[in-house]
Amino acid sequence: MLSLTDRDAVTAALTDTTLDPALRALIGLRVWQVDTDRRRPLGEILQLVVVQPGDTSEVIHEAVGFPITYDQAEQPGWEWFNDHGAWFELCYVLTDDFGMLVFVADHPDTNDTLRFNCHGYANRPPTTDHRLSHLPNPIRAEPFDTASQGLFSCLKGP
Question: Regarding predicted confidence, which is higher, 127 or 52?
Answer without folding.
Answer: 52
